Amino acid sequence: MSLSPAPAEPITPDPVREVPDTLLTQSWLDLSFLHWAADPADVAPLLPAGTVPDTYDGLTYIGLVAFQMHRVGWFRVPGIPYLGTFPETNVRLYSVDRHGRRGVVFRSLEASRLLPVAVARSAFRMPYMWAKMAIHRDADTISYTSSRRWPGPRGARCRIAVRIGERIEEPTALEHFLTARWGMHNAFFGRPVYLPNIHPRWPLHRAELLHCEDELVTAAGLPSPVGPPVSVLYSPGVPVRFGRPARPGGLPTP
Q: Which Gene3D superfamilies did the record assign (predicted)?
């Protein structure tokens, strides 16, 4: 697919646009980012219409991101303590549209609360999956476990453990490319959608991958990653605000 000549937005750790109206608020806490390089041709068929793989030095990336979703709230209403707080693990790709907007495309999102999963799937057509999940922190080691309940493939698992290292004072351009994404591309009833978000600059740490046993990437229709991830990062997290859908519109998650 050919895109218009609009240049892609800059890769920047700070938001690239204002988000004047608030649709959703939430925080993403205790995140571990695992990334594998991929051939853009392998993932292009999995992206929504109107987007192509976003690349860095000719490669795109498959992300496996585990974290704690904290207090999701609508508009400016305070976040919900129970239903709005839960572990989540997503499989994501990186996209750019003909307007030059860089974004994330979610292939799957595991979450441990059934009601938010059902609402996200039915109302917003987001590929949320209900799973049994846990996050455990022991000093500088954090682990995430997930086993899918519904829909299938039932029992698809993910187990990750990382050791948190030193704070990164000056992240590389690739590390910004993988983490500082200021919107989401999706399809909503067959129409392209884009939802912008805004948050403070990521506090990033080096991380050592201690264990990774994953079935979510292949369950999401992606090729099985070869070898260890090329990037492993940790962040204590950020508060996030989603704006109203841009044109074409959109609907949210990390």
A: Acetoacetate decarboxylase-like
